[in-house]
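Write out this protein's structure.
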Amino acid sequence: MYFVRKASLEDFTDIANIHFESWCAAYLGLLPESYMSNKNNLFEKIKMWQELMVHPDVVVWVAHDTNHKSLGFIGYFNKNNSYEITTLYVLPEYQGLGIGTELMKTSLQNILESNINTHFYLWVLESNAATIDFYKKFGFVYTGDSSEECYESTKITDIKMVRKK
């Protein structure tokens, strides 16, 4: 059993740990191993989340079990009534249990209750078909926009998805 609540400032270490542990599992086989080891640093993630959690335009929800162990989180950045979903991670051993779905549903519902005209968008790795399909379940569609990064001899492409009303 798990629960979803709005994250507090004190959650930054748990969120950073989930981000660190889940990041490699999420991109295993989709990104070069050297890229993954260069980009996934626990110290940097702790520092990043400590700074982000105090930012007034950042909204984070966390899922936890009955013992208050954090299992996953979703993070948004609010810019002019438009929310960019920047992160959605669940610890690998808890994936497939509906936690990501519940994080998405709870956070979307809460934000839409305060403003029905809110827009949502995100960037997702083009080769991450499972995640793209997940977002499609919530009404997100590919806009045709993409962003490319070259790393060593690999082209890494993210695509933009927006939520249809």
